[in-house]
Design brief:
Elements: H1 2-34, H2 52-58, H3 61-92, H4 99-111, H5 114-125, H6 131-137, H7 153-177, H8 182-190, H9 195-206, H10 208-223, H11 227-232, H12 244-254, H13 258-287
Helix pairs in contact: 1-13, 3-7, 3-10, 4-7, 7-10, 10-13, 12-13
Organism: Mesorhizobium marinum
Subcellular location: Cell membrane
Keywords: Cell membrane, Membrane, Transmembrane, Transmembrane helix, Transport
Length: 290
């Protein structure tokens, strides 16, 4: 009977496993293999080049710039998105007037298409006529080309990402906060614990699994952002806002250097794999107190 149940279970899983293998694992293996070959051009077939693509990558100044930009982008968007999402979740978890409307307002940026979000913020950043320069003009400041100069282009995209994904992460924190027993709040109130002490000693440890989940997703998002870059800056000016995935897109679809794009993709997948390994093998036990 048990054997029959196992057979039925595997039969039910087979369609999903075939789709997962065909559209995830097989392309990943093919990408790794392509990184050791050259790009076929017209009548010239691809040839095996070994680690030449990787050596080229190490000497590629644009790749180094993209990695530095991505590191800065991740270092800002990950903690800022988590902090903003948690702050919003703490605020709307209380009984306040218009709670449902406020939750919907916080979540609205998440359901907007990324292309639409980028175009909305382009209007905000418009030099002289955009929302930000209109406000700055009231205080006598000169207009700034937010997405057109190297010193601000990357940070302009970073601000859009934080605004766009904080509402999504808020939903997870809100769900985690609602699982905290009311009895703990009552016991803390009887002991005279302040709101800060309750948050730091009780709320924060209990929502750590959710925080870890959100942080991993924020890290993945930081390395797969391409929509905002494509619409707002196209990696410019002078590669000041080029991120790794946009550089992969640029090499693969603009210059049609698919072998080099595959090499860059292998690096990105390796980075994300390290994050996953860190979650499941290094931090999971500490987070779940096992």
């Amino acid at each position: 009977m048990i054997k029959r149940e196992w057979i039925n279970a595997w039969l039910l899983l087979t369609p999903a496993l075939l789709l997962l293998f065909g559209f995830t694992h097989l392309p990943a293996v093919q990408t790794i293999l392509d990184s050791f070959w050259s790009t076929p051009r017209g009548q010239r077939a691809a040839v095996f080049v070994g680690f030449d693509n990787y050596q080229r990558m190490l000497g590629d100044a644009v790749f180094v710039k993209a990695m530095v930009n991505n590191a800065i982008y991740a270092a800002i968007t990950i903690p800022a998105s988590i902090a903003l999402a948690l702050s919003m979740a703490l605020f709307v978890s209380r009984k306040i007037l218009g709670q449902g409307l406020l939750r919907m307002a916080y979540f609205t940026p998440t359901v907007l298409p990324l292309i639409a979000v980028a175009n909305i913020w382009l209007f905000f950043y418009l030099p002289g006529f955009g929302l930000f320069d209109q406000i700055r003009g009231l205080f006598g400041f000169q207009p700034i080309n937010w997405v057109g100069q190297p010193s601000t282009a990357l940070y302009a995209i970073t601000a859009v990402t934080i605004w766009n994904q904080a509402g999504f992460f808020m939903i997870f924190f809100l769900a985690a906060l609602q699982t905290i027993p009311q009895s703990l709040r009552e016991a803390a109130a009887l002991e005279g614990a302040s709101s800060w002490v309750f948050f730091w000693r009780i709320t924060w440890p209990l929502i750590m699994p959710t925080t870890l989940f959100v942080s991993v997703n924020a890290t993945i998002n930081a390395f797969r952002m391409v929509d905002h870059v494509f619409v707002m800056t196209q990696g410019g000016p002078n590669n000041a806002s080029t991120l790794l995935l946009y550089y992969i897109y640029d090499q693969g679809f603009r210059f049609w250097d698919t072998a080099y794009a595959a090499t860059l993709t292998v690096v990105m997948v390796a980075i994300l794999a390290i994050v996953g390994i860190g979650q499941f093998f290094l931090l999971d036990r500490r987070v779940h107190y096992r």
